[in-house]
Structures are given as structure tokens and as C-alpha cells.
Amino acid sequence: MRNKAIEPNEDLHEEYYQVSPVILESFPKFRLPLDTFEFREQVAQLIPLTQSGQRISADQRQMILDKCAQGLVFVARKDHPVYAQHISKQLDLVLVDSSLKSVEIALIFQQGLTDRLNAFLDQPVAPVLSALQTDLLVLTEYLWQDPYRIKQLRKNLWKEHSLANHGVNSLFIGLALYLRLNDGDLRRKHLDEVAMGLLVHDLGMSKIPAFIRAKAMPLTRDELEKIREHCWIGGKMLHSLEVRSDLILKQALEHHERLDGKGYPQKLPGKELSMIGQLCAVVDSYCAMITDRPYAEALTSGSALNALSQSPGYNDKMVRALMGMMMG
Description:
The protein has about 325 residues and is α+β, with helices and mostly antiparallel strands. It is built from 15 helices and five strands. Strands 1-4-3-5-2 form a five-stranded antiparallel sheet. β3 and β4 (about 45-50) form a beta hairpin. The chain is elongated. Residues about 1-10 have low confidence and may be disordered.
């Protein structure tokens, strides 16, 4: 890569960003995963320091760490996908890197939480759930510091449906809707639990045979009954993992219930549905409709919102709030 001359009034962070020592130390010790550059103040230029995959010695590594501590080590923003892939394995690093832009942080959270959720869906046991909760707390801390950061996160949605993709899409859209509806009345504990419920509300689907979930043709009655069991299954799985929060469990159990009593698994009347269950129902349906699924192509956001607004099964206030959020 050519050197870039830096003029005094030029914003260096448009094309490069400074690497914090904490993040640099988290890279593989002797083979950095991307190109690094040193800022030479005397010539006002970025000079190539190391190349991606290049073997470096212990002395070279210490030299780079020393320069990094002085704020002189940079990486190119064009390499952000590599950087994001690395930080997504240690999400707490997001909170210590002030050089990252909101769009870059959103990509890191999207990739990192999808990876963690995939791991939990594959192995739904307590240690894996604990790791997922730890990373999710990084996200809620990030939003607790500034709730308006959710605007960028809700733009980072997966276009293809999978259980993990759907969970992360539901998390971002659901938190945006929750923050909009509860502006001025936020509680950190509630935010943490709402986030977890949104992320794992479809956990029970991981126990439904894959051939049923991937079926493009209409389901048989038996297959449909199996699908409808996933709410109970998810609730039981969470309970067995000692999850006791109503804000989490209600989302798993109620996200397919409808205000007109035509949902499942219990066909509860609207007056018996929790508000968080109603929110998850709106978000679950919206996020499902805007992704490509085996049995249906993705709808536009407008078409999905219109379908929700015409159904008596969803909370009208929440649908209108979602419409204002997505179309505003």
C-alpha cells in the first residue's frame, strides 16, 4: 500500500484509525492479522510497519507495542472486516477502542453475537450460555452509555434467515423498539433481560428437525404441530438452565401468541399476554418477513410493516412505533 501524506488539517481517521495497546496485545503475538502503519511525525506520513501474516520477532513485537503506547500505530479502515472478525471474538474490546466508528462497531457486534448465538444453539449448556450473556452485557453497556447508538445497530441486519441470524436481527430491532417505547424510563436490569429474551426467544427451534425448518413446501399437520412445540421447548430449555427472568421466559413462550387469541401454543387472549411477549411477537414476525426463508422470499420493510398493521393479532401501538422507527 502506498504511503499517505498527512496534511495538518486532514482527518487521519477517515482512512486509518489508531490501534489501542489493549487491542494490539490481543492479536496473535508474532503474526498480526492485518497491515500496520507507523505515523512519523517528523515527515507527517504513515509508513508501513508490518504486513498481514508477516512473522515478527519478540523484539519487533515489543517495538510495535511501545509505538502503539505512544499513539503512533494505525491500521487501514479498508481492513476493518479483518479487524472486526478479530474483535468480535473479544467484544469487550469495543468499549476501549475510541477510534472505531459506530458503523464499524455495529459490524463487530453483529458478527460476534451471531457467532456466540450459533455456539449456544449448537450446545445449549450453562457454560456456553454464560459466555453469551457476558458478550450481551457488552452490548447493553454500550447502549446504556448512549441509547441513540441503537440507530446504527438496527441498520445491520442479516438478509438470509438462520436461527442465529434471526436472533441477532430480532435483538437489534427489538432493542430499538424497546428503547423507543421506554424512553426516559429505562432500567439497566430490564435492558439486560429484554436483550437476552430477544436473542434467544427462538431457542426451541434448535430442537426441531432441520429438514422441517428448511422445508420449502407446505408443512404437513404433524410437521406443523412439531413447529408449534418450539415455544414450550424453548421455555423448558431456559428453565432447565436456571433462567428465571419473566422478561426472558415470556418472550420464548409468547412470541407466537396473538391478541385475537389465534396464536399458539396456548391461544391466550390478549388480556393475558405480557407486554414484552407482545413486543417480541411484533419483532419476531417483522424480522422473519424481511429475510429470505426457504419457503418465502424477503419482503420489503414497508410491505412487512403493512402486513403487521393489517393484522388484529399484534399490539397496534407497538406496530405504529415500529413503523415510525423504520420509516423515519
